[in-house]
Each structure stands twice: as C-alpha cells, then as structure tokens.
Amino acid sequence: MSVTMRLEGFAELEAELRKLSKGTGKGALRRALRKSAQPLADKMEAGAPKDEGELRDSIGVSTKLSARQRKLHRKAVRDDKASVEMFVGAGPLPQAHLTEFGTSNQAPQPFARPAWDSDQQDMLNRLKAELWAEIEKTVKRAEARAARAARGR
Fold first, then answer.
1. What's residue 62's pLDDT?
2. What is the pLDDT of residue 18?
3. What is the pLDDT of residues 9-48, one digit of tens each?
4. What's the helix, strand, coil split of the chain in %, to 5?
C-alpha cells in the first residue's frame, strides 16, 4: 500500500531549508522524517497479529524498498532528485498485504491502515516540530564551524 501526501502550510520550513545546501537539507529532512514516522511504525507493529512474528518484526521506517517494491514505486511516482522519501510499513514479506487485506481463505487483519488513520495528523505535527528542530541544529552546527574556521585563520 502506498500513500502520497502533500504537505501544505510548511512554507516557512521550506524557506529555511532552501538556505541550507542541498545535501545538508536532505539530511535534515531524512532525520526528521525518520524520527516523526517511528511512532506510526510502532503502532503498526502493535496492531499486527501476534501470531505473525516475522511480519511484526519486519515493520519499520526506511528509505529503501525491496527490488519489487522499487519497480512498482517507480511506475507510480516520477523520480524527483531533489525530494526525500521515507517508507513506513512491513518489509518485503508476501504475507504482509495478505494479512492486511485478507484472501478468499483468510479474513483481513488490518494493522497498517488503522495505525495510519489514527496517527496521520499527529505524525504531521511531529514532522513539523522535528523539522524545525533539525533545521535549527543544522544552522547552529554551520555557524559553529564558520566561527571555528574564522578563529583558525
């Protein structure tokens, strides 16, 4: 399952990110996304069926997809080199989507969608706070490096 979100109201954050180098900004985004998405992954893990230990253990937050997931993702989304993506959910296990949606022989046992529905607004709020914190830390580190370099001259 893939969900695409468009964030609105983050204009000030975006303006601050533009002041950073591309690599530094992407690093700050990745750290903020990972930290703000972890509680969602924890909710998915808590909601996963108890008898599906391998499924529960595979749930996490990552920038990487399996080869099959990457292929399907590329078809759905045009690659943008300036963007940062973070994926939350089960690893590449065949039973993950079968457990979530069910089959003709197995009733659905949703764990991802209920977690998303209950956490999406909180996650966006966490993301905004984490991103501000990351930008502030990054700017302070850059200022400290510049000050050290100026003293060293």
1. 92
2. 80
3. 677 877 888 888 888 888 988 999 999 999 999 999 999 9
4. 65, 5, 30
The encoded tokens of residue 43 equal 């909710």
Per-residue DSSP letters for 55-118?
Answer: HHHH-EEES---HHHHHHHHHHS---TT----EEE--S-HHHHHHHH--SSS-----HHHHHHH
Separation in Å, CA 3 to CA 6, 54, 115, 153: 10, 23, 13, 50
Q: How many CB atoms lie within 10 A of CB 73?
A: 14
CA separation for the pair 26, 137 (Å, rounded):
14
DSSP-derived letter for residue 33 is H
Q: Are 54 and 61 in contact (CB under 8 A)?
A: no
If you ran DSSP here, which 8-state letter would residue 51 be given? T
- With a CB cutoff of 8 Å and minimum separation 6, the contacts of 40 are 61, 88, 115, 116, 119, 123
Nearest partner of 88 among 51, 47, 50, 128, judged by Cα: 47
Average pLDDT, the chain: 85
- The residues facing 3 across adjacent strands are none
